[in-house]
Write a structure and sequence with these properties.
With 149 residues, the protein is α+β, with helices and mostly antiparallel strands. Helix content is 32%, strand content 24%. The chain is built from 3 helices and 5 strands. Strands 1-2-3-4-5 form a 5-stranded mixed beta sheet, with helices on both faces. A hairpin with a 7-residue loop joins strand 3 (60-70) and strand 4 (78-87). It is globular. The chain starts with a strand and ends in a 27-residue tail after the last strand.
Length: 149
C-alpha cells in the first residue's frame, strides 16, 4: 500500500467516496450534492485550495481530503478543515487510515510552515466518532449535535 497526492484522474474516486460519505450522514436525498459541485471542490483543492491524498494498493482504497478556508470567528486566519476521511471496508482495521492521517499531517505541517494556514481541524462524523485523534496531535475542541425533526 502507498499514499500519494491525488491528481485530476482521481476525480471519479473522489465523487464516489464523497457520495458514500453523504449516504452515511443525515442529509436528505433532495439536498445531496451533485457531481458538478464535487468536481469544482476537488479541482479547487488540487489547485492549492487544500490537501487530497489517496491510499492505494492495486486500486484506491482510501482517501483523506481537507480544504483551506477562513476561520468563522477570525476571517483573516486560514485553517485546513478535513472534509473527508474514508477507507474501504476491506481495508479498515489495517494501517491504511493511520498512514493516511500521518501523511495528511505531514502535508498540513508544510502548509503551516509556508504560512498558508494557522490551524488544522478534523471533523469526526460517524463512523469516526469514537476515534481518539489526540495520538495524531489533535485536541478535542467541540462536538456538533444535529437537531432531528
Amino acid at each position: 500500500m502507498i499514499i500519494r497526492k491525488a491528481n485530476k484522474f482521481d476525480l471519479p474516486h473522489f465523487i464516489d467516496v464523497a457520495k458514500k460519505v453523504q449516504d452515511m450522514d443525515f442529509i436528505p436525498d433532495d439536498k445531496k450534492v451533485i457531481d458538478k459541485h464535487f468536481n469544482v471542490l476537488f479541482t479547487t483543492i488540487l489547485h492549492g485550495g487544500g490537501i487530497a491524498l489517496i491510499a492505494e494498493s492495486d486500486n484506491p482504497i482510501g482517501m483523506v481530503v481537507g480544504v483551506i478556508n477562513e476561520n468563522l470567528w477570525v476571517p483573516e486566519m486560514y485553517m485546513l478543515t478535513q472534509i473527508l476521511l474514508y477507507v474501504d471496508e476491506d481495508w479498515r482495521h489495517t494501517k491504511a487510515g493511520y498512514k493516511l492521517l500521518q501523511a495528511y499531517n505531514d502535508e498540513t505541517e508544510q502548509l503551516i510552515k509556508n504560512d498558508r494556514i494557522e490551524m488544522s481541524v478534523i471533523h469526526a462524523a460517524e463512523p469516526l466518532h469514537d476515534i481518539d485523534f489526540s495520538r495524531f496531535g489533535y485536541k478535542m475542541s467541540e462536538k456538533i449535535w444535529q437537531l432531528e425533526i
